[in-house]
Write a structure and sequence with these properties.
By secondary structure, this protein is an alpha+beta fold. The chain has a domain at 44-154 and 241-406: Beta-lactamase (3-Layer(aba) Sandwich). Helices cover 34% and strands 16% of the residues. The strands form five sheets. A six-stranded mixed β-sheet has the order 2-6-5-16-15-14, sandwiched between helices. Strands 1-8-9-7 form a four-stranded antiparallel β-sheet. A hairpin with a 2-residue loop joins strand 5 (98-105) and strand 6. Helix 1 (7-36) packs across helix 7 (193-202) and helix 5 (129-143) packs parallel to helix 9. It is globular and about 55 Å long. GO terms for molecular function: hydrolase activity. Pfam families: Beta-lactamase (PF00144). This is Serine hydrolase.
Length: 410
């Protein structure tokens, strides 16, 4: 017996099927839409302040005993110099679509500015600032005996990476972005590995599976090539070694003892695995606390005047010391893809005396100048970030150094 379907019936059936599919995949479609338009000029500012609302995220509660910096607001320099040109600070902050700028000098907030949609209690996406938090957790895990040594193989803790690009790499190699893994980190290339990774997150793809898909390009420990997935692998090592999620471990070891005053959010895949390489969402003041911790070599003085070593001192010192030729700063280092130096997920800018920094795409910075007792935090949503002719990074460092000189003791 044949059943004849009317055109209306076919259309109705198609529409019902479509509605079911849209309902089932609605969250993924929303995430994919956000991922694809993440850096669009008319959306970027809002997106960077609401990432944890669009993607799966794990909440890290604020400290039960929050710490607050003293406040002594002062003026910033109106201009700074870059390659013989005088630039306006106000114009530069506008051109880079700055969301927040904070300067801490001698334990006091001397400047705190919010722009566009940002406010003191709003969490801003970290991007690669998160890498430096992960590095701190690795140092703590080693101190607690969860990880024996950074000379161990990655596969000692993550055996599922045997036979992948990470087979044969040491933990130290991934800490120093020298794993040898092949990876295209160009955010301006829609088909780059990093943008493929973003779309994988939108679809809920396992982050661990994506990490296992990469192949080898260089001998581990010989060439500095910035590969964000290296930090994802560090996250895999941490969770296997500690038996804890990154969010739980961060909450106990850093957020609570440091008195972080606001909750944070860590983006995660559909299996609950955190985006170790760049998924933290943190307020400006709490980013600044982390910078202040590293300025004091991992030691923290809480609101009651109690001093505690949160991150081992030697780990902090090692983290900001390039210890091999391929990690040294320089314009023409043949074994590095960067002009800046690199440690354990921390950058040492070209021409640094003692400065070091955490850095994330589109203008995220925690800049630390120990001999000036100074920390600068900048959150941004620069829609022109991929325009390499503008030298945004070099100009930003010039600005930070001008601010540091401005607050230097006479």
């Amino acid at each position: 017996m044949r059943i004849k379907l009317s055109t209306q019936g076919i259309v109705l059936g198609f529409m019902l099927t479509l509605l079911v599919l849209l309902g089932f995949y609605h969250h993924n479609i929303q995430r994919l839409s956000t991922a694809i338009t993440l850096y669009d000029a008319d959306k970027i500012a809002h997106n960077f302040l609401s990432m944890y609302q669009h993607f799966t995220a794990k909440r890290i509660e604020a400290s039960a005993k929050p710490f607050y910096f003293a406040v002594h607001y002062q003026s910033l320099p109106e201009t700074f110099e870059y390659e013989g040109e005088t630039l306006s600070l106000e114009t530069f902050l506008s051109d880079t679509q700055t969301h927040g700028l904070m300067v801490i000098k001698a334990g006091e907030i001397v400047s705190e500015q919010y722009f566009l949609e940002n406010k003191a209690d709003k969490q801003h996406i970290s991007f690669s600032l998160a890498k430096s938090f992960v590095s701190a957790l690795v140092g703590i895990a080693i101190n607690e005996g969860h990880i024996q040594s950074i000379e161990q193989q990655v596969t000692d803790y993550v055996p599922e990476l045997i036979g992948t690009g990470y087979d044969g790499a040491r933990i130290k190699d991934v800490l120093q972005m020298s794993s040898g893994v092949k990876f295209n980190e160009d955010y301006g290339d829609f088909f780059s590995d990093i943008n493929r990774f973003s779309r994988a997150i939108a679809f809920g793809t396992s982050l661990d599976s994506f990490s296992a898909s990469l192949t080898r390009e260089h001998e581990p420990g010989t060439y500095h090539h910035y590969v964000s997935i290296d930090t994802q692998v560090l996250g895999m090592i941490l969770t296997r070694a500690t038996g804890r999620s990154l969010s739980d471990y961060l909450h106990e070891k850093i957020w609570q003892p440091m008195g972080m005053q606001d909750p944070a959010y860590w983006l995660a895949d559909d299996q609950g695995v955190e985006l170790a390489l760049g998924g933290l969402n943190v307020t400006l003041r709490d980013y600044a606390k982390f910078g202040w911790l590293y300025l004091h070599q991992g030691r923290w003085l809480n609101a009651r005047g109690e001093s505690m070593q949160i991150v081992p001192q030697q780990w902090v010192l090692n983290s900001v010391t390039p210890d091999a030729p391929h990690l040294q700063a320089g314009e023409n280092n043949p074994a590095s893809s960067s002009v800046d130096g690199y440690g354990y997920q921390w950058w040492i800018p070209l021409g640094a005396e003692d400065e070091f920094m955490a850095k994330g795409i589109y203008g995220q910075y925690i800049y630390i100048d120990p001999d000036q007792d100074l920390v600068i935090v900048k959150n941004s949503a620069n829609p022109h970030y991929t325009d390499k002719t503008q030298q945004w990074g070099a100009k930003t460092i010039a600005l930070f150094r001008a601010i540091s000189r401005h607050f230097a003791e006479p």
